[in-house]
Amino acid sequence: MTGVEVKVEGLSKSFGRANIWSDVTLTLPPGEVSVLLGPSGTGKSVFLKTLIGLLKPEKGSIVIHDTDLVRCSESKLYELRKLFGVLFQDGALFGSMNLFDNIAFPLREHTKKSEAQIRDVVMEKMDLVGLTGDETKLPGEISGGMRKRAGLARALVLDPEIILFDEPDSGLDPVRTAYINQLIIDLNAQTDSTFLIVTHDINTAQTVPDNIGMLYRKRLVMFGPREVLLTSEEPVVSQFLNGRRQGPIGMSEEKDTAQAQREMAETGGELAGLPPLKPQLEATAGLPERRAVRRRRERVMQMIHTLPAAAQHAIRHSYADRTLVGAVAGGGHRVPPSATVRTPGRNGRP
């Protein structure tokens, strides 16, 4: 089943007088993997909770299957929530239950399946995330990475059309994070569900998503094809992707413009630029090709003329490389002239 489109329009959320973010507008394309970045404290996790109706926004709409979650009845909201699977930061497992019972919990709560049917589903999902044989272990007996995978298996048991990941890399070392990232891509290839990942991990943002957004100063400053943000020279983007101190983002709050400009001037321009653009992860050999890849390519190529020059170049270069690799694998046919990309100039212009 192909994942569903999620259309967010003009969403605003506050707690009392404290505004979290305002006028957030984005569309999660069906079946694609999207990432939401932003400095700590910008309300990324709040956004996930708002998407599934756990928090109610003051303004705006969230439309899924032609239904606005913000204004629908409680009974309709209950049904729509079944479209979602959520992987929480710590896995959110019940400490007194073994992994099998943790993963079976949503099936026992929300379906009328027999225990034999439940066992079939649970074992299928445990195999999917590489936990076969660990059914009787308690959460306290396994590693953080295994708890993440168990939480992911539980998020999958109701075959959701939309899967939300709240910092799946938190608490994991770079190697385990790399495994989780590959698992996310492999699951997308097998489920074709719509994925949204909240993360601070730059490598995840560079290699996993089809689309990237960024929350900053209580606004969604950017959302679109991954190449747009990864080639952007906006100071906040450059600072975040490079993980450096100098720039608009401060320790506890955003710096004022004068301070940020002064810090950058003191570096003499030595910190300009972005990390090299990394290729997007592909599904593991032997798994189905991600159906989102073709849909995404058609969608992006239709809008490419509206994107910044550097992003256009990166997109064309990426697709030219894939065509070349496919041609070599398929017999060495030449890349068509239309796929040829020239070397960009200083400002990313072909």
Describe the structure.
The strands form 2 sheets. A 6-stranded mixed β-sheet has the order 6-7-8-3-9-10. The protein has a 4-stranded antiparallel β-sheet with strand order 2-1-4-5, covered by helices on one side. The two termini are 39 Å apart. With 350 residues, it is α/β, with parallel strands linked by helices. 39% of the residues lie in helices and 17% in strands. It has 3 domains: 6-230, Rossmann fold (3-Layer(aba) Sandwich); 235-266, no CATH class; 308-339. It is built from 12 helices and 10 strands. Mean pLDDT is 85; it is low at 327-350. Strand 4 (59-64) and strand 5 (67-68) form a beta hairpin.
The biggest beta sheet, please? 6 strands, mixed
Which CATH class of the largest domain? Alpha Beta
Helix residue percentage: 25-40%
Q: Supply the helix-strand structural class.
A: alpha/beta
The overall pLDDT average reads 85
Gap between N and C termini: 39 Å
* CATH level-four homologous superfamily name of the largest domain: P-loop containing nucleotide triphosphate hydrolases
CATH names the topology of the largest domain as: Rossmann fold
For the CA atoms, what is the radius of gyration? 21 Å
Instruction: Strand order, main sheet: write it out.
Output: 6-7-8-3-9-10
Residue share in β-strands = 15-25%
Q: In brief, what are we looking at here?
A:
With 350 residues, the protein is of the alpha/beta class. It contains twelve helices and ten strands.
